[in-house]
Fold this sequence. Notes:
Number of helices: 18
Bound molecules: pyridoxal-5'-phosphate
Strand order of the largest sheet: 4-10-9-8-7-5-6
Amino acid sequence: MDATRKGHETVSRLSNSSVERDIANYLHPYTNLKTHQETGPVVITRGEGVRVFDEAGKSYIEGMSGLWCTALGFNQKPLIDAAMREMNRLPFYHGFGGKSHDVGIDLAEKLLELAPVPMSKVFFGNSGSEANDTAIKIIWYMNNALERPEKKKIISRDKAYHGVTVATASLTGLTYVHQDFDLPIDNILHTGCPHYYRYAEPGESEEEYGARCAKNLEKLILAEGADTIAAFFAEPVMGAGGVLVPPKGYFAKVQEILTRHDILFVADEVICGFGRTGKMFGCETFDLRPDMITVAKALSSGYLPISALFISEEIFQCLVSESEKIGIFGHGHTYGGHPVSCAVALETLKIYEEIHILDHVRKLAPRLQDGLAALGGHELAGEARGVGLVGALELVEDKETKRSFAPELAVAARVAKAAEERGVILRSLGDAIAIAPPLIIKEGEIDEILAVLGAALDQVAGELPG
Ligand SMILES: Cc1ncc(COP(=O)(O)O)c(C=O)c1O
């Protein structure tokens, strides 16, 4: 420990470059910390439209909208102005103990107007994790109000992503989010990941496969006892798991099972919400009727932290009675519904309407999806998939058998790196390369992303052994 620390101090004294100061001081999320000490960071200093620039002035198209969030790109003046105005007017207030503020009221009202199914109330947090964590707590609280103390287990799916708090990381279905963090916690269960290309049996149709996945969910419910299962969480399109579009018929069957067993459905719209799939919510694209919805990211185009949890009237009434019994609804975040974040979110939603963002996404979606489908023919590609302005290319060693590359070859990560060197930021998610550009992207910029991805694939194909 001492030696390492000393080493870093030496580095800091020798050079003041941001790379070295980063390595010396900054603990990075979702990063291989060992490798990072050798490779260092890519330091981004500014953004413009769909592009960001590093400290050497190199330009990159942000093909992932940062972390699936900057839907309006990187220099929307009205969002900056909205933040400045609110910062000058009310730089902080909260909703604890019945206090409120007008921008929070306006935003809650606006969100309920937009909700894809009738919802009753909105609770504000600062991140997707907080929204999902609150959903879990509310579900437990509600079942205590209903005197169903056994009905507490929550089901999510392998490869799901719902966050990183203790409870939401438990819901997340990715091994590296659990491993050595002593997760998942009790009462969290995982059912199979519905990925037709990867997990269907030979000869099984997409509908048959979707029905089988739903049946597996029901088997789990019955094995545990439906009276012990409180809720099921799902992203309409699974994001961090590899951009997995649900198989045909899957959600219809899942919803029928949930209703039959009196299990709540929580739709995690943190990535899909606000136009990503071509409709305002993924719930509309896939005909979902959830009891709760969580949103974040594009709610403020990523400009400031804010998330929201929508709850139905039935759930709200349970919270009312339980809080009356206890004397308080004992939950809330200091910065939840921060007025500056609310003002930026309101402005973001206004811009989506003004520029007809949904029409734009639907108009450009074929350009991205057809381009990806064409790249699906590349020798390294197994499946091209996506909807709206989100997609992925799954890389395989053998197209015929769908055999994956050995993980140590890190093929997808190498393709993402090769694209980055060519000025396009994409993200490798396991064996897949994901694309989720700002929704304001133009056709020529989509073409640029696809051309760079093609060149990156060629480069890595040329580097792979025989
Ligand atoms: C679908 C989904 N849910 C929840 C989260 C967690 O959000 P946050 O990172 O803001 O906590 C994410 C983050 O990527 C996400 O993609």
